[in-house]
Protein: Chitin-binding type-2 domain-containing protein
Amino acid sequence: MKHHYNTGLRNFQTRLAALDERSNCPVVGSALAKSTSWQDKKEKYALPEGAELLVGPIRSTFQCFANGYYADTDNNCQIFHICSSTDSVDGTRTQMQYSFLCGNQTIFNQLTFTCTYPDDAVPCVHAQDFYYLNSHIESDDPEIHFLDDQDVQRAAPLIGADTYSRRVEKPVAHYQPVRRRFDFEKRK
Structure:
């Protein structure tokens, strides 16, 4: 059974480059993979130095349970993980966990798999309700889209209906600077 997940994982950098343009928030992450064959799990995730300055004390409680992209709810969704399992030649399965830190003042949106401002994201307390979207990545059915109308409708009341129906405000009148009269100019 061929999975499309590995293709998705290879294209992860491309997906990161296409982050929500409104937020223009970079993802800060570690390019180091960390094996999470739970016997040798380290106390902290492989995150950049100083991550605690953005997140606060980091709780390293998340454990991968299936392939996909997961918001870390124990760290207020400011950290997210990519989980990928691989089969070795001897038949053992190894679960890999890649941990990333969202940019300052952003959280991982489990609906879109991007880091964005909290007002534009599924609230962190509801992130686990959208973990099922990872099954869309691995689907062999080409008719299954990453997000469908039901997924968006399910998230809309949590995010706020105005997020999906933003209107362009009437432009503010341009500021007209006061013209100064210099002494050498004639008075009219």
Remarks:
- Helices lie at 5-10, 12-17, 51-55, 134-138, 149-159, 161-164.
